[in-house]
Prior knowledge:
The complex is a heterodimer of chains A (about 160) and B (about 140). Chain A is mostly helical and about 160 residues long. Chain A has one domain (about 1-155). Helix content of chain A is about 80%, strand content about 5%. Chain A has 5 helices and 2 strands; from the N terminus they run αββαααα. Chain A has a two-stranded antiparallel sheet with strand order 1-2. Chain B has one domain (about 5-140). The longest helix of chain B has about 30 residues, at about 5-35. The chains are: A mainly alpha (about 160), B mainly alpha (about 140). The interface between A and B is large, with 44 and 43 residues.
Amino acid sequence: MAVHLLVVFLHIMTSILWVGYVLFWTIVAGPIARAGGSSEAARVFEAVNRAPWPPRKIPAPFRFKFSQVGGLLLVVLAITGFLLVFAEGIGLGDLVSGRFLTDRFGRLLAVKLVLVLLLAGLQFRLAARPSRRTAYGNLLGAVIVVVLSALLARLVGK
Amino acid sequence: MNAYSVLVALHVLAALAWFGHMFFWSLVAGLSLKEVDPPETGRQVREAGLRWGGFGWPSLAVLGVTGVLMIILNNITVHHVVSGEFWNEPLGRVMAVKIVLVGCMAAYQWFVGHRPAPRLIYLNMVFAIAVIGLSILRVRSPW
């Protein structure tokens, strides 16, 4: 039980940081594109994506580029998410064969998984070529995934 | 999707927006933007980030309204709360701690807001983590 709660906690903390990442691009993309036009916005976004995180005083092997942070958060979300799905008694075989689609939990989970795959694609684009449209699309996808997650959490164990 | 599910979704969205914005700017974006090359570009992005202010007050408003409505839909009446009956139950005790912690965070929002607070911001984040932990316990516990 304690390990399960720890995985839930890690999943939620990571999703909080990921929503922060999505909001960051949504908030800054608009005013920067409006102020300097698309070529200036592309220059600014590239400079931000190249910036290191954590800062340079942290040794290089433990440092990422800002553009990699979103992907890193999605990887942690995927690992903890699958652990939580397995804890619900849904195995890899059920996921591959589609056996998990028999109840409401399974169908909501399927929609969430498809959306998360789409979001991973958007995130990849945001890291490679950030734009206002990608940022807003990412926010819309994130809101839908969060709503689905809240509904899934209510169905856990039922 | 019933009314309670809509309230839960709104409650979770408001909390994620508030905490996500706070955690990401404090732990990731703020640190990275200091290292953007050239530094003026980092400052430009920081200023753009302040355009909407923060998510604290709007999120608190949504959290307060949805929180109270969820309590009502859980058949907890004013009588339960005023008589102290509610606060003696496990759910009531968790709610009491949560309300105190959110009150501390609202006070931070009021007195500090977006001014630099290198130490207090971490205390605020510890309160946020405690609120998240209590919320998980509330949802995953049998009571």
